[in-house]
Amino acid sequence: MKVLVPFKSVPDPNDATVAGAAASMPKSVINPFDEIAIEEALRIRERGEAAEIVGVTIGAVAVDEQIRAALAMGVDRAIRIDDTRALDPYAVARILRALIEKEAPHVVIMGKQAVDDDSNQVGQMLAGLLGWPQATFVSKIEFLDNKTRTRCTRETDAGLEVVAINLPAIITTDLRLNEPRYVSLPGLMKARRKPIEILTCDQLGVTVRPLTTVLSTSRPPKRAAGTRVDSVEGLIAKLRQEAKVL
Amino acid sequence: MSMAETLVLIELDRQQVKRPSLHAITLARQLGGDYALLVLGHGLDEIATSLVSYGASAVIVADDPALAEPLADRYAAVIVKAAQKHGAKTLLGSSSTFSKDVLPRAAALLDAPMVTDVLAIEEMDGSVLYRRPINAGSMLATVKLEGDRRVLTVRATAFEAPAADAAPCPTERFAFDAASLPNGMQFISREQRASDRPDLTEARVVVSGGRPLKDKETFERLVGGLADALGGAVGATRAAVDAGMAPNDYQVGQTGKIVAPELYIALGISGAIQHLAGIKDSRIIVAINKDPDAPIFQMATYGMVGDLHQIVPQLIELIRRA
Hints:
heterodimer; A: 246 residues; alpha/beta; Rossmann fold; nine-stranded mixed β-sheet; two-stranded antiparallel sheet; 30% strand; B: 322 residues; 2 domains; five-stranded parallel β-sheet; 8 helices
């Protein structure tokens, strides 16, 4: 079985602070949800259910650092689609569709959302474009029936839901699917010798133009800190008399 | 058959309308033009009747055994057919795992861009701009779309519940060939929650707990106990869920549920940015934490520094006594 894992480079979410005083240039990392997808692909290969893991990302040469990190985790080979534009999820989905038609994986595993733009769209759009089944927000993956189907546990608002879907399919990962491994030194050494293929949209035969433009960003209005209370009675009095919620 | 500028997808949970999904109607009204409501499922007669007074041009009902469970491939196919048949340019839903599963797929089938988690709209030079949270809610982005079709999900907490005081509109059965729907996904099971507590996203009071609650029993006794004393819902931080103290669907925050109750009580929650992003529209926030420097105190209406193992039982008792 061949597993394809698309991943995105994002500013390190741990660089930001609650006060919103994000560092001016946070370092980039693999989107944490995508890192979970990579880890799951590795575990599937380690169980003997996958023969090859292909990582793919879109961006300029700067994202090669995250590609090396993915290869160091254990991805077999990687593809970078060279495009420096601010793409929207639909454009990304269309580019990935072109690549998937070329690579023909049995399953695509990717993060449910990127932690920078939080759109939560690409996997589902990709499944729609390909006409493939999808399992989103997944916390458990098993393959069934000689790997023609997968049974996935999904984290939904109403609790856990289990679906069985035919392969090929798109799976998007949720937080509790696994805990990604750290990159090892031998992994890093090996990663240097692994191939990174560079492709362009032209070579993939796909023309996309983003339909979504971010015009501006701003900080949300801050909630002012309120008052400290020092006793349970005092708290209840405030909630009753001042806030009138009790 | 009615035509409608906008189609609003109404969500069901165990054969009930999920109230926050109605808030998308408020955005449909702000956008202007006719809007129709669309509901998918099986055995929907009563549900359809309950939706006729929201000022829509019609309630469109896709009622079929094939839609008994919300499988994304067939749901998206039916939604797209309905949008096309009714000439809808905008497809709207309320942010939830249901709409986030189904609507991006529908957007791709409609060849339309999508905006997730719309908080507000504004107009600039005749085009609509959409404001939405990014970076776990630490920033807001103003987004412009091109093209003549779009799919939007709204943050239910950012839009009022719509009034149901309009003259009743017709309900229309949406006819489709169930045998032609995609058939690659099969529903197996859903973990049934046995809880008398209100739904997190609909409750007037939410009590949430963090890692200092230590274990499942303590969590239930203190967080659950206080929630029950107040008739509220129970929430949890990601850390508490990861530690096995609470089920995953209790998670409140940017990657969990967004809540905006009248009263939010945070027990032993330091205030990770992604958690704060999920509670900041609550009217009153109470924080009880033993760390006086916990970030949550920067946005709590009332903060109390101390040991929640002592404070919470007292609080429960005083509330119960009243």
